[in-house]
Amino acid sequence: MSADSIPTAEPITRLIEEFNKLPGIGPKSAQRLTYYLLRAPASEVGALAEAIKNLKEKLVLCSICLNITDSDPCAMCRNEERDRTKICIVEEPIDILPLERTKKYEGLYHVLHGVIAPTDGIGPDELKIKELLLRFNDGLVTEVIMATNPNLEGETTAMYLQRLIAPLGIRVTRLARGLPYGGDLEYADDVTLSRALEGRQEM
Amino acid sequence: MTAPRTYQTEAIIIKRIKLGEADRILTLYTPELGKLKAVAKGTRRPQSKLGGHVELLTHSRLMLARGRNLDIITQAQTIDNFLPIKDDLERISHGLYIAELIDSFTGEHIEDRPLFDLLLETLKQLSQTKDCELILRYFELHLLDHLGYRPQLQHCTDCNSHLKPDSNFFSSRLGGVLCHNCGFNEPVARPLSLNALKVLRLWQNCDFAAARRVKINQKLASELEQVIAEYIKYLLERQLKSTAWLDKLKGTILPK
User: CB B241 to CB A190 under 8 A?
Assistant: First the structure.
């Protein structure tokens, strides 16, 4: 409210307002960022402005995996090194990053852009499921890995997809569910613990 | 100012929406406090202590701290996670429908222990059965009962005459059965077969175990479903969102 009483140049208040809309940025952080940019060299500010502009202008959805990309098909779908017999299904583009960080997965991805959430009125038709089924037409894919979130909606979606895909003769697997590394057994919930017991492995 | 800062309650989690980066707002149905909303912090992180204890359709014991706006869940311990529901696509879907029904029909902070008991019993029954539809019909009928919308099935709702053992009519507007004569004069009433009337009467007055013993063919089952669904839609003045998913599930995939 102080911005109303103390006269500040319009470009400054406007940028503060824009920053303030971002997640995790309160009015104070917004001010700090704005005044930082005011003092920063013009080249740096220009680079930021361009990066933000490109975000919307240059990005599209990959026509194969529906990940966000600047070239269609995306770099991952074009990469001949990757295993074309496996597709890993994720809810959102951001879910690919942690999976890639593990460096354990060499196959391709498919982004659903959501999960089945009946009580929010989101059904299979709202997700990129038709696009997924089209990818099985060439008969190359032998395994589909469900990497939806381990919660009710994620499991619902995985079970639904399993029913669609399994009849095609494709192996459907799901990420193991168990105890988080660095966690505490005492706080584990029964579902996670049951799954961890079921999926226990020879040492 | 003297109200204690924390309190404990049992609860069944009936709804969940994302809040901020890793938090959720949960809608709880409790025996002593009715429906209420609370914040579960950090539950979207894998290492959350609350995590699986506050998943949808879970019966948990909770400790809550009073917040300025919404109360905050500080501790949670599962009582029953209804795992058999969560392992089965049909059961999950029906469970979510039940949760949405409860959420749509109840207001916040209205204590209703019998309704909590009904919800808990329904989820228990749902985890033991293959016939989700029957559980759902029983729940719907008794939910309407609890809320004061008990369908009138004994006499004609309009002229109060005794019903003949013949096909009659059901009117959502009047909340009950109409005799042959009155039914023809009520434009929105739908025909109700004698068998459907008998089953509805029986279910209204029996427990789950007895309800499960009734053998119902496909035609009768879908008649019962439509009668009750129409009545519920009339009362809520809208379609429940999860019905679309239930229909889709029935239509596209045959049960294994």
Answer: no
